[in-house]
Amino acid sequence: MTELLLAVQPLTEQESTILINQGIEIVTPELVTYEQLKNVTISYGWSPELGNRILAESDNQLRWVQYQGAGVDLLPLAAFAERQILVTNASGVKAPQIAQTVVSYLMHFARGLHVYQEQHLWHEYEDQYTLDELPTVIFGTGKIGQKIASYLSPYGMPIYGVNSSGKQVPGFDKVFALNDLLSVWPEGIQVIINTLPDTPATHHYFNSQNHKIWGELFLLVNVGRGGTVDEKELIASLQSGRIRYAALDVTEVEPVPADSMLWQQRNLILTQHTSWANHTYPERRSGDVFRILSTNLSAYLNHEPLIENVVDLTKGY
Is 6 helix (H, G, I), strand (E, B) or coil? Predict the structure, then answer.
């Protein structure tokens, strides 16, 4: 069967040549016909409009989606699972950029830059911290969590991890299981960094009930998915002082509405889902996404298990 790839994500001339040389036919969203949509076998990137049209055809040939993002909660995973459609994501592609943004959040608040940003008269602000004074827990020990840990470790701060199993991961002082934090939560934690996906197990996980486990915090960071944080309760915690500062790159509703209370919290910074950004790649697309596709392509063509960034459709990540 001829493999037909729908290039939702733009391909460079070199990338197109690589695919053509392996017998892949390419069609773009602006030129794809109705008959071609039914015969698309690979979607490079995902278009909700075109993707739903493909899935609506009972005899569609879609077999593999290489998604352009890391979080896949917006994809129709149940439909993919029912039709045994493979999904690979872009997890890790933007890890360095995201990790450096997280370091900047910590520096911003720990070194008092948020205070000096607004001051227009000389007034010394000395309530500043060095990072080794801020023991940190990173929720999610995947590629992004590991990159964050590697960037923070040289500062001498204790760094713990949380994942679904409690399996130990290099780069963390210790890793705990998500469902066992009540009995093992380390003392003195000042910073929580969330990189978790939004799944039934993690939706609104960061809420007032779980805040009781970790007590008062210096900083809560979310670079995972917006739905993992109960924003109403976050605002209440910021106003009461239970959480001193917060940095959100992701929110439940994007763009954040102009009348949202999130904008009104002076101890909260919103970076508006741009922690991935790099001026060299002004769009979300990066050649590394194609590298993941290319790495898996040989296995796919040989009807073998895919190698890299395969999404577990039942877990949602």
Answer: strand
